[in-house]
Amino acid sequence: VGLRSKSFGSLTMGRQWNVLFDTVVSTYASFPYSPLMDAYKPEIGLSMGSRNSNMIKYVGEIGSVRFGLQYAFDEKSTTDSKAAGGYLRYAANGFAVGGAYLYTKMPGGTEYDAYTAGGSYRTGPWYFSAGYGANKRKNDINATSAAISNAYWNGETNGGFLPGLPTDLNNYSKKRELFQIGVGYQVNPQLNIGMHYYH
Question: pTM (2 decimals)?
């Protein structure tokens, strides 16, 4: 549900993509041709689940600059997280650069700071990209929050990260980071080849 104006931007409400996901897929996704499909894309795996329920989000544009702000209400449920953040992105002449921050509070009370920043350049059939992402846990974790974090971080699509042992919360990850760089080439409308390095 939302409102959109050519002059004032858009205001949307409901379950939607968060600011980290918006920044990655519009700025430096390793597979930009269809970033929503289930392909290996660990940079999206650092976007704290990619979506939030009960969110209000504003997105505006001034020339080549796009910016967004979000706030997600937790509704006191066992699955929905409270989250607040924003992003800033510049894109022109095949070049794009952007960054985002998202604070998340899990239903169990565990808090995270998450960041992403990156850029890309397109020229003809070539696509070059580089980016960084980080998730940092700010306080203790409990079983409720660990189960949700596992869902955010695990799985091949999300990069197959190992967040820790949910049965041993003392060994649960406090921080994870990803650096990436890559190149893609559109051979023809049906065939794209690419190579990416993730650390």
Answer: 0.90
